[in-house]
Write a structure and sequence with these properties.
The complex is a heterotrimer.
Chain A: H1 5-20, H2 26-49, H3 63-76, H4 81-89, H5 91-113
Chain B: H1 4-26, H2 35-52, H3 55-61, H4 64-87, H5 113-137
Helix pairs in contact in B: 1-2, 2-3, 2-5, 4-5
Chain C: H1 3-21, H2 25-45, H3 49-73
Helix pairs in contact in C: 1-2, 2-3
Classes of the chains: A mainly alpha, B mainly alpha, C mainly alpha.
């Protein structure tokens, strides 16, 4: 489904206006319900454009998973391909996750201990 | 909480949960699981102990300072393993290209640094859980008799 | 859709609405733990055991006691 970008920006502006400026009342309720229907329609349209579950011609079945599933055991030595991807092919990404954990605990400690 | 049923059940159950957490960490490259899941299980076992007994009892098993050091040490361990690949003449966090891969695929000691990285992640996640829980449930006056 | 899938997915929807609608925060946390457990079963049925283990440990375990610790420091009713 092709979406006109002007329409999308208009819907976003209408949302901002309704949420921040419009006083509570009948019109606000009607507009909120209308916006919910528009967004729900867009989401349903997006889902209906997705390929069916387990179909052969999905983008998930192109050459990339064959490459990883076939060559991960010999390239990394790990039988479990998920762990091979997490800690070998994308190990730098996992380093970022470790940093996220560290930042989370630093934030929690600095909030809880700073009485 | 002074319930004898909860205390007895937890005393029996906690070692099994910890062994399962270690299994999930160490078999991360063989079976489903890995550092995050195993670390969460380990941390949950320690929190279960601290909940069923007392917060001070849990703090005696794994102190505050020790937990913080483990938490930082997990991250430093991860970076050190990454720098090992750099020192062996390859890129940061490389495994087989740096000559780290050893063992046959399917055995426990295989996969080079994946095993060590999972250990670091697991220790870090477990101590993060315990430290967060301890700091959240610690109170000034009463020693943590919460719901 | 098999009957078990239908049952589990409808349980997910009902518990997700119940978490949002419950005024008692302690009850909401317990319902959220049940939600995570059913979600873990669904991950396992979809063929993702890694995600299932992580969801069961983090969603049903760690999130619950962190929320409980937070509730014990604040107030229980919304």
């Amino acid at each position: 489904m092709e979406v006109n970008p002007y329409v999308a920006v208009g819907i976003l502006l209408l949302m901002a206006y309704v949420f921040f400026y419009l006083p509570a009342g009948y019109i606000r309720h009607v507009l909120i319900v209308l916006l919910v229907f528009i967004i729900g329609y867009a989401l349903v349209m997006t889902v209906s454009e997705m390929p069916t579950f387990g179909a052969v011609d999905t983008p998930a079945h192109n050459v990339v998973p064959e490459r990883y599933l076939g060559r991960a055991p010999e390239e990394t030595g790990a039988v479990n391909v998920v762990t091979a991807i997490i800690t070998d092919y994308r190990a730098f990404d996992t380093l970022g996750e470790v940093v996220v954990l560290f930042v989370a605990i630093v934030a929690a400690l600095s909030n809880l201990k700073a009485r | 909480m002074k319930d004898i049923v909860i205390r007895t059940v937890c005393r029996v159950i906690v070692p099994f949960v910890q062994v399962y957490g270690l299994y999930v960490i160490f078999h991360g490259h063989l079976s489903p699981g890995g550092g995050f899941a195993g670390g969460a299980i380990l941390g949950s076992s320690m929190v279960l102990f601290a909940l069923s007994f007392h917060l001070e009892a849990g703090a005696q098993k794994l102190g505050h300072e020790t937990s913080s050091y483990l938490e930082s040490g997990g991250g430093i361990w991860y970076i050190l393993i990454g720098l090992l690949g750099l020192a062996l003449g390859s890129n940061f966090l490389t495994n087989r290209a740096a000559g780290l891969g050893f063992g046959l695929p399917g055995q426990l000691f295989s996969g080079g640094m994946i095993f060590l990285l999972s250990l670091g992640i697991g220790v870090k996640v477990a101590s993060t859980m315990f430290t967060l829980f301890y700091n959240l449930s610690e109170e000034e006056g009463s020693g943590g008799d919460h719901q | 859709m098999p009957l078990l899938d239908f049952f589990l997915l409808s349980f997910l929807i009902v518990s997700a609405v119940a978490v949002a609608r419950t005024r008692d925060l302690l009850s909401a946390v317990i319902i959220f733990a049940a939600y995570s457990l059913v979600m873990a079963i669904i991950w396992q049925m979809l063929g993702a055991p890694d995600v299932a283990i992580t969801e069961a440990a983090l969603g049903a375990g760690v999130t619950t006691f962190l929320f409980l610790a937070t509730i014990s420091k604040t107030q229980r009713l919304e």
